[in-house]
Each structure stands twice: as structure tokens, then as C-alpha cells.
């Protein structure tokens, strides 16, 4: 009742959801009945979860934020959704996003723009802006997003919530609409690190429907956290923390930099050894990411042809059917990415763009490996600025892409990263939240959650 009531009151301003489930109350009553009967309950019994609209749900529409899939209802649940339901969670609705995950503000949704709950004249970030805003406005307890180049971490930072991008392969991508398959991961949002850890546990593990999902053992993430009672005993003693030099220099908001430096001091007080590290290929990651993500997208999005699902144009010749369905259904950003990707992959340009971007990816992976051999975790801001105004960057795609500088390298390297609120800067009505990004080696999510928990 409390959550639905708040959702109804806040949704006209925030617009986090593209679809709200009609069966939430019935499902919650079912949990009540189970409690009364003393039956065994799943670990997430009755927990309300928002699901990004590019993650398939059998009983609700799944559009990926695109008009081309308006009205589409998948025949199956994504593995992550199935696992959450098996643990007892209730899906409250499908959250707004930039079309197919391409964007950083939700302004690229084919349906609506979501507002930042801290200041409704500002963007919530993106592309998982609906999932971040919904947790921030307490319209649901936790939510799922997807992160190809920062789409969980940057909105978590803008909305003042916790966001986790797991290791590539930690969570099955089965039922996640593919944007750039070698970078895509399903991630989690919570209003605390503990909530995020619990959700990560529920969705992690191998899945025979996703060949890239890992068989690596899944630890009990929530039990790895440090108890508040132990904070006096220097619980981080000996932890080696590298602050990434390239992320705290020119072009980064001064208030953001000082929040990150304050966080470093806090880690030192708790026993960590903080040093500055340099990742020489850091600035190359952004252009390489946009070449690779667009190239993979141009191939992945060929499935939206007006025949298999979604929008179908009226045309009497097959090529017009394809062309018109796509012209009507895709928004401008998606069309631009398809053109960029097709160009980068075409025979004459392949070596100059796609192949070169792959070479840069190898360099980025190596520089992360070197830095993480010497450090347990790396820290940086999650975004160079706090949330900006709706409309501010909408006509300047390069400025918007530049805002992804802090996050894209992590996807190129395939490693996990956690964002937790670590401070505020001036702006908005009562200040704007800043998120600290913590990065670890593959499958070290437990280490990140342990450190992130300290910021609560
Ligand atoms: N903003 C980035 C892009 O548009 C990242 C998006 C994402 O992680 N899905 O590609």
C-alpha cells in the first residue's frame, strides 16, 4: 500500500515507469497468506522490484524504450527476472530508459523523459534513469538496470542511490535486449549496499541459455560486509586503493573532485593505503567504446525488421517494409548509432576504425590489469559532473558522450564496479548527490560491496 500510494503521488512528476503492474496488490496478498500459513518464504518474499524495460517480462510489455517495440509482450521472462520471482520478489513495473540503452539521460526514450527526484528540472542520468529514479523516490525497493558503458553507475550517481555493474558474465544476459553484446551486463540498484548485495545474490550464476555466463562460484555477498561495530578497529587495514589520476583533473567539476578526495581520506582513516595511479590509455577508451558499441548495435538491431516483432509499416514491397518499419520505429539517436556502426564495419574502413578500437580495448584491459595487480580497488568519480538540466545536452551528442568518460573503460575491461553516494555539491534545491566509483578485478564484487558499505 505504502509503495503504491507513493508511486501514484510521485509518478506524475518523476515518470520513472513505462508500465506499472496491475497484479502487485494480488501478489502481495498472496505473500501475506503464505506468512499467515507459516509456509516457507523465498529470501525476497514481497520485495517490490522495478525492472528496466529492455529486460524481458512475460506478463508485461517490454519495449526497450523504443517505439519499434510498442505493445510487444515477450513470451518469456529474462533469466534474472525468473530468478528474482523464484526468490519471491514482486515486479512492480517496467522502468523508463533511453531507447535500447543508447543515451545518458532518458531523454532518448521513445515515450517520456524521467525527472531526477532531487530536482525535477534535472535529468536522472541514463540509460537506466527510470530504475535509478524509482529507487531514489522510493517507488520500489530495488531495481534492475543494464550497463553497457555506464548506464547503471552514472544514474546511480545522479540520483544518490547505490548502483552495481557486475563482472561481465556474472549475471545471465538471457532476455536482455542486446545493445553491444560484448559489453552488456545486467546490474542492480538499491538504496543501500546491503540491498544491492542481496539482489546481486539473487540474479548471479551460470545459465545454460547464455554461453557467456560464468560458472564462477557465487559468494554470499551480504555476509561479506563489515559490521558498523567494527569501524573503530581500522577494518580496511592494508587495503591498497588506487585513485585514478586521469579522473580527478581538468574538465571534472571541482565539487565532485573534492567529494572523491574526501572519500579517499575516509578510506585512509579506516586503515587503507591510498595512492594515485595513472591509467595511460584512459582517454582512449571513450572513442574506442563508441566505435565498438555502435558497431555491435548496428548488427544486433538488424533483428527489428518489422517482420518478427514490433512496429510493421504498411508497404507492398519487402524492402520498403523493412525500411519503412525501421524509419518509423527507431528514434534519431538509434539511427545515428546504426549509421556510425555500419560505417565503422564497412570493408574500406574496418581496419581504420573497428580493428583499431579492438586494439585499444586490449590496451585498456592491460592497463586495468596492471593497476589492479598493484591495488585491491581503484576509485574515481562515477561522472564528471552532478545531474544537469533536462535539455542541456540534448542537441550536443558529443558533450553527452564525453560524460561517459568515467565509466566506459570498465566495460571495455569487463571488470565489476560499484557506485555509492559519497557527498553532495551545490545545486538544485538541497544540493545534488555525487557517487564514488569503486573498481575491482573480475569476480571481486564482494570486495567492492565491503568497501562501499562503509560509506553508509
Ligand atoms: N551512455 C552510453 C551510451 O549511450 C552508455 C549506455 C549504456 O551503458 N547502456 O552508449
From TrEMBL:
It comes from the Eukaryota. Its main location: mitochondrion. Keywords: ATP-binding, Chloroplast, Ligase, Mitochondrion, Nucleotide-binding, Plastid, Protein biosynthesis. It catalyses: L-glutamyl-tRNA(Gln) + L-glutamine + ATP + H2O = L-glutaminyl-tRNA(Gln) + L-glutamate + ADP + phosphate + H(+). Transmembrane segments: none annotated. GO terms for molecular function: ATP binding; glutaminyl-tRNA synthase (glutamine-hydrolyzing) activity; hydrolase activity, acting on carbon-nitrogen (but not peptide) bonds, in linear amides. One of its GO terms (biological process) is mitochondrial translation. It is an enzyme of class 6 (ligase). One of its GO terms (cellular component) is chloroplast stroma. Residues 1-449 form the Amidase domain. Its EC number is 6.3.5.7. The active site is at residues 52, 127, 151. It is found in: Mitochondrion; Plastid, Chloroplast stroma. Allows the formation of correctly charged Gln-tRNA(Gln) through the transamidation of misacylated Glu-tRNA(Gln) in chloroplasts and mitochondria. The reaction takes place in the presence of glutamine and ATP through an activated gamma-phospho-Glu-tRNA(Gln). Belongs to the amidase family. GatA subfamily. Subunit of the heterotrimeric GatCAB amidotransferase (AdT) complex, composed of A, B and C subunits. This protein may be expected to contain an N-terminal transit peptide but none has been predicted. This is Glutamyl-tRNA(Gln) amidotransferase subunit A, chloroplastic/mitochondrial. It comes from Canna indica (Indian-shot). The lineage of its organism: Eukaryota, Viridiplantae, Streptophyta, Embryophyta, Tracheophyta.
Amino acid at each position: 500500500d505504502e509503495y503504491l500510494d507513493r508511486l501514484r503521488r510521485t509518478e506524475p512528476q518523476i515518470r520513472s515507469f513505462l508500465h506499472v503492474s496491475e497484479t502487485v496488490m494480488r501478489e502481495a496478498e498472496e505473500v501475506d497468506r503464505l506468512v499467515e500459513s507459516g509456509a516457507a518464504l523465498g529470501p525476497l518474499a514481497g520485495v517490490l522490484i522495478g525492472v528496466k524495460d529492455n529486460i524481458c517480462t512475460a506478463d508485461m510489455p517490454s519495449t526497450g524504450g523504443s517505439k519499434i517495440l510498442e505493445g510487444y509482450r515477450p513470451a518469456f521472462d529474462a533469466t534474472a527476472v525468473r530468478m528474482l520471482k523464484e526468490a519471491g520478489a514482486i515486479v512492480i513495473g517496467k522502468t523508463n530508459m533511453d531507447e535500447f540503452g543508447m543515451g545518458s539521460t532518458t531523454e532518448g526514450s521513445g515515450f517520456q523523459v524521467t525527472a531526477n527526484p532531487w530536482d525535477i528540472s534535472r535529468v536522472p542520468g541514463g540509460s537506466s534513469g527510470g530504475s535509478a529514479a524509482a529507487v531514489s523516490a522510493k517507488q520500489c525497493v530495488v531495481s534492475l538496470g543494464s550497463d553497457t558503458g555506464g548506464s547503471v553507475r552514472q544514474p546511480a550517481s545522479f540520483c544518490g542511490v547505490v548502483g552495481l555493474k557486475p563482472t561481465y558474465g556474472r549475471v545471465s544476459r538471457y532476455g536482455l535486449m542486446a545493445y553491444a553484446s560484448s559489453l552488456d551486463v545486467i546490474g542492480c540498484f538499491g538504496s543501500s549496499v546491503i540491498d544491492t548485495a542481496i539482489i546481486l545474490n539473487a540474479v548471479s550464476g551460470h545459465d545454460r541459455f547464455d554461453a557467456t555466463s560464468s560458472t564462477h562460484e557465487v559468494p554470499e555477498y551480504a555476509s561479506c560486509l563489515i559490521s558498523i561495530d567494527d569501524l573503530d578497529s581500522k577494518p580496511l587495514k592494508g587495503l591498497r586503493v588506487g585513485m585514478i589520476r586521469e579522473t580527478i583533473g581538468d574538465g571534472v567539476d571541482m565539487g565532485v573532485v573534492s567529494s572523491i578526495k574526501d572519500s579517499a581520506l575516509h578510506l585512509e582513516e579506516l586503515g587503507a593505503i591510498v595512492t594515485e595511479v595513472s591509467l595511460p590509455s584512459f582517454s582512449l577508451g571513450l572513442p574506442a567504446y563508441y566505435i565498438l558499441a555502435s558497431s555491435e548495435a548496428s548488427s544486433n538491431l538488424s533483428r527489428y525488421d518489422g517482420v518478427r516483432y514490433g512496429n510493421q509499416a504498411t508497404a507492398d514491397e519487402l524492402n520498403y517494409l523493412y525500411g519503412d518499419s525501421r524509419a518509423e520505429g527507431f528514434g534519431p539517436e538509434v539511427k545515428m548509432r546504426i549509421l556510425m556502426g555500419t560505417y565503422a564495419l564497412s570493408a574500406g574502413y574496418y581496419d581504420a576504425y573497428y580493428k583499431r578500437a579492438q586494439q585499444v580495448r586490449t590496451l585498456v584491459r592491460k592497463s586495468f590489469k596492471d593497476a589492479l595487480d598493484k591495488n585491491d580497488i581503484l576509485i574515481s568519480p562515477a561522472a564528471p559532473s552532478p545531474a544537469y538540466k533536462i535539455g542541456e545536452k540534448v542537441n550536443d551528442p558529443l558533450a553527452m558522450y564525453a560524460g561517459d568518460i568515467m565509466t566506459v573503460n570498465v566495460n571495455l575491461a569487463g571488470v565489476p564496479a560499484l557506485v555509492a553516494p559519497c557527498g553532495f555539491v551545490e545545486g538544485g534545491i538541497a544540493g545534488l548527490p555525487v557517487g564514488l566509483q569503486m573498481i575491482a578485478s573480475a569476480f571481486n564484487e564482494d570486495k567492492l560491496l565491503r568497501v562501499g558499505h562503509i560509506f553508509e
